[in-house]
Structures
1.
Amino acid sequence: MKSVRLLVGTTKGVFFLRAPAARTAWQVEGPHLAGRAIYSLAHDGRAGRQRVWAGAASMHWGAVLVPTDDWGRTWDEPPEANVKFPADSGLALKQIWQIEPGPDDEPDTLYCGVDPAALFRTSDGGKTWEVVRGLLDHPHRERWQPGGGGLCLHTIVRDPGKADRMWVAISSGGVYRTTDGGRTWSARNAGIRAEFMPEKYPDFGQCVHKVVHHPTRPGRLFAQNHWGLYRSDDAGDSWQDIARGVPSDFGFAMTMHPHEPDTVYIIPIQSDMVRVAPEEKLRVYRTRNGGGSWEALTRGLPQRRAYDIVLRDAMTTDSLDPAGVYFGTRNGRLYASNDSGGSWRVAIDGLPSITCVRAVVVDDRKPARRTGARRSARR
Amino acid sequence: MTRVVFLIPTPLRPFADGRSRIEVDVAKDPPALADALEALWDAAPGVRDRVLTEQGEVRPHVNVFVGAESCRWTGGQATPIADGAEIAIFPAISGGL
């Protein structure tokens, strides 16, 4: 029997939602890690695990990565901070924005992206994390500029077919690609307009908000920028504007359909100066032809006096067919669709401000295996 | 040898074996706050990363008081420490958005 779990990060902790595969009624429990801002969550199902990682930030005590193997019943709070910049960098961690499990054949490899913009890697299941030097020491670093959320590396896109190829997205620095496992990184922003700079098409400095791709077509990327919707068909070497038929090309959230490599979802926002739903209508836009055209998905969503917006990691899909699509708003409302976006229901209302959402399909008959890869005592 | 007492706030007690007070002896003479903190990290290593950044700075929303005065106004971690001093760690009221 399959069920769907939603991992919901908020500014006040983690919530888990659970529903049978029909995905019509949701049970919620939480908050876990109460009071901490959770800007990143990831599920790691490799090697028989059912591990959830949370990037948990306390305004007072700093940010750490905290795993749970039992859906939040217990969390392994690290005795010492587990993601730390080296002393010679002069940098101090502010926030953990993204957690990305590595390749299936390297089940102890994970990545995380942080503020100030940097990429960390573990190859021992999260016991130790090391900064990726090639990006930390990049000559562009001194000219990257923080956005409203800080100077964050918020997106990590791996190529499932080429272990050495990866893209990261930095606000605001733009898209960077490595093809040698992280040793070197090149800016990949040709064709992306930087509306907020005198030079409109610089090599780097663009404020990219999200990048996605489909694992079956890893060289084709979609990007939601701070102004601008783009597609690249050449692994980021060049980008084409695909913002036709959307009410605004400003936004944060973007997610890929799990089975259709031409289908992408976005949630436009009315300009960076206003930041509410355009025309006071909360609409998801979907393209089914790789950005050739977009359609508004509104059934079940408020179409008057809607001011909610959705942050960059607060929309996701599950892997069922038809796909579930989920998004959480800054006002704490979580919407769920069990028909690929055709209709929407409120799964839960009244949560703290939602920062990230992840979906996991779980076979409830199969017990999770504890891998014991961590070092910390249970707290 | 200088003996000081640290007062540990509730959120950090899980990293201090549940203790609210930790007495430490500081060998350096004369001692500064940094020396006392080093002794505290020896006694409760997990507290360190919650109070200091990885660059060794007191976190922006944490206050360390030596007696009644925040170390921010008395020389930071170079603040002199007297025998019997009470050093209190507090979450600042600025946090918690």
2.
Amino acid sequence: MTAAVTKSETPAGVAATSATKVMLEARDIVKDLGSGAGKVRALKGVSLKLNSGELTLLMGPSGSGKTTLLSILGCILTPTSGTLTVGGRPTSELSPEALANLRRSHVGFIFQSYNLFPTLTAEENVRLALDVRGSRGSDAVVAAQRALQKVGLRHKLKSYPANLSGGEQQRVAVARSLVGSPSVILADEPTAALDSENGVAVMSLLSQIAKDRSRAVLAVTHDPRTVPYADRILRIEDGLIVGEERRAEGVETVHELARTRKRKANA
Amino acid sequence: MTLTLAFRNLFHDRVRLSVTLIGILFSIVLVAVQLGLYLGARGMIISMIDRADGDLWIMAYGTKNFEEAQPIRARERYVALSTPDVVSATPLVTAFTDWRKPTGGSTLVVVIGADAEDGGLAPWNVVQGDVSGLGARDAVMIDKTYLAELGVNGVGDTAQVGASRVRVAGLTEGIRSFTVTPFVFTTLNRARQLIDMPADNITYVLVKVRPGANVETVRQAIRAQLPGDNEILTTAEFRDRSLSHWLFATGAGVALLGGAILGLIVGTVIVAQTLYSSTKDHLPEFATLRALGSSSGYINKVILMQAGLSALIGYGLGMTIALTIVFLSEHTALPIVMSPGLAALLLALTFAMCAISALSAIGKVMRIDPVMVFNR
């Protein structure tokens, strides 16, 4: 497996290439948590851009501000200062309901613990993401089934989360994040609860999803197994982006290597 | 999906669902019985007044209810009859007296005396015998409900009222008294004899006004001719006064309505508690919904649907039990009444109770920190 990434010359992917589009942009994000003597500055001025067609990894030690940043990028938390633009829309003046509206239009989430509804089947869990967007009826059912088919779970439509393996549950969560065609997918430690095989399967899936030129994917992770799938890696420490590595031109990701290998084998 | 989610959340924890349903069920049954008793009592209190064929009642000043009235002079009837637009003025006699059972012992009864040919107030729901049979010597008519209490078995049996012998000439069904004191129907003169009332006394004059005439004008005209120790009430006023006396002056109605309110409060607290704890258990899921971008309205809808489903199931179970109790009480001295209006009111109260209960759960969900989705 080749993990080929190089140090980038530009800060946190500020410049998108002509083929890509900036799907999300954060500038000088500061976030204070707590109040009074217990106040902590979790983010100290983070700027980044997420470009379409890219899988970006956000890596850093515990307490570095990864989850806080992810929450802000997903419009779940509002920054103390700084600006965030999602899908071309600034978020600073938006009410909680308007932020929720922005989330449902532009953001898909994948959680470490999958966060599936235990009382709903796989298909219903996926369909729920459409339901909150107001998309119902047979079209929603078909869309949910297609999303599950994309993640290889067409045969598990009627299965409840309790009857699915961890990897399958995370693939349902991936399908749920995809089904509303968001412009940004944010994944929080997507492989942390998975064994090696399932972790590889999920990262492979995210890597494929990121190839879509209408979408950017950001995954927060500790897991070194995920590195080969990345187009770009952002390093965060003490609430600041301290480094960015970009896959070098002409160096294949593990995903591309696998495809090359398959082509060669077929030939 | 909101309905599916609400339904699954509800049925996910069967124990909690059972507690919720038992809370609603007890509440519904308690409220149904209390309000059913209230309606039953109300019906019994006003049944005589509503059955009497008249527009105005002449009675002794300060009469509080149908059963307890002081005598007035019988000639007041002729004063009424001489008033323009009066079609009829029927004398009635009512009074409490003792019924001596043939088997020994005595019980209090309300004697009602009216002549059938006057058409003022005759027994109804007659199941045995005939109203015209009251003209026979010693004849009285009683309700089946009170046979045992009066120590008789049916038509033909005799007893003693005051110093006179009476013979059961007919039976009615469902004419019950709020005071649980049996009514004894007889003719006007025999009633006077049974209660030892002078021949020139009566209890009420029931005045019927010509159709289309102004009742208030007729009342003023009669009042102008009567002495001040009488008063004249419309049927509606007399009904309200009787209800006010028995239900509120005695505290009986307050107790019944108080019990109903208590039932609602207990039900609301139980449902609120279980719904709140159910919502608390499902908080991570609601936080996930929030993270997925659902509006507050969407989440509120799920919680309200949970409450609504609980209400519907609880109402169904509660009404089944309440209707059984209503059926069992049908032939007792204090029947519980279930009208379509009361059933609809109970349904509305159940939904309102569950909606109010849902408020605490909604409050909890509104305070969710969606960041918790990352900390599960």
